[in-house]
Known about the structure:
Layout: E1 2-6, H1 11-22, E2 26-31, E3 45-47, H2 53-60, E4 66-69, H3 76-81, H4 83-104, E5 108-114, H5 137-152, E6 158-164, E7 166-168, H6 186-196, E8 199-203, E9 215-216, E10 218-220, H7 221-236, E11 241-246, E12 252-253, H8 254-265, E13 270-274, E14 283-284, H9 289-295, H10 303-315
Parallel strand pairs: 1-2, 1-4, 2-3, 4-5, 5-6, 6-11, 7-10, 8-13, 9-14
Antiparallel strand pairs: 9-12
Helix pairs in contact: 1-7, 2-4, 4-5, 6-8, 6-10, 8-10
The structure holds uridine-5'-diphosphate-4-deoxy-4-fluoro-alpha-D-galactose.
Residues 74, 76, 114-116, 165-166, 184-186, 189, 200-203, 214, 216, 254, 277, 280, 284 line the site of uridine-5'-diphosphate-4-deoxy-4-fluoro-alpha-D-galactose.
Amino acid sequence: MRFLLIGGAGYVGSHCGRHLIARGHQVEVLDDLSTGHRAAAQGPLHHLDVRDTDAVTRVLQRGFDGVMHFAALALVGESSTQPLRYWDVNVGGTLSLLLAMRRAGCERLVFSSSAAVYGDAGDAPITESSALRPVNPYGRTKLAAEQLIEDAGAEGLRAFRLRYFNAAGAAPDGSLGEAHRHETHLIPLALRAAADGGALRVFGADYPTPDGSCVRDYVHVDDLARAHALALEALAAGHRGGALNLGTGAGASVLEVLRVAEAVSGAPIARRSEARREGDPPSLVASPARAALELGWSARYTLEDAVRHAWAWHSAPRFP
Length: 320
Ligand code: UFG
């Protein structure tokens, strides 16, 4: 089958492209390269902004069996200081894509959503029917985009909304990895600190968690890629879609992640205790049961695998 990956030059999108090709599918990428990398795109690149509805329609009219939509601004902290930009790109971009898909008669979508739609959900594993109470503008834009997609079901759209927990790691063969120009994520920053001897800032030591630091469910990017491929294949086979959590079901605190990063890199990581970062919920851990039921998906890689692959990529990245 032939798929168009919106935002396919970014971190999760590029790994999904690689995985789809390995499964025998054809991939084209539409990306404005504002955060992605040309070298990461796994197929012909349409260098466009998803908000350009007419141009996206023309690309879709070439004929695709489905669309994956990754293009979004995705930094929790930044979303609190630039909320309108987040609404413009994340919600405006999704509306533009849905209009283009309707015009082009394309009815299958896999959407990159986020655990951020749940907000502060307590420390129990989060199911898809847990309350949706996002605590930052990023999460609110993802929830609004999900609602747009649900409403578009009345006009024939079939879609999976995949709620990622914390994407982590790199391609096991070292061909792709996380390469944000402005890095804010814990694992790459911890590995950078291990490599250059700098200090890692730990945001918050007084959360209601076992060691006081935030707990997250780190899911390997290759596991995410496999879930996307299964979701598109299920839509093509007639599945109606829905919302699915993608996580491992196990949480790790910031301090635990640092211990894994030290073990993998073999270097001590200096840490500096800082105030809480705005918009961070204390704990986000998935119940991945529904994804297992609907797609036969569960994570195969561990946090240690993700950190090991990220360390190999960090040591020899292929694009700037
Ligand atoms: N953290 C630090 N120091 C750092 C960086 C991060 O202590 O230098 C902490 C954060 O405060 C947080 C945890 O490490 O508690 C993870 O932070 P990340 O920035 O790596 O990831 P987030 O949990 O903020 O966000 C990520 C994605 C979002 C997604 C969310 C869902 O970026 O898109 O996971 O869990 F919504």
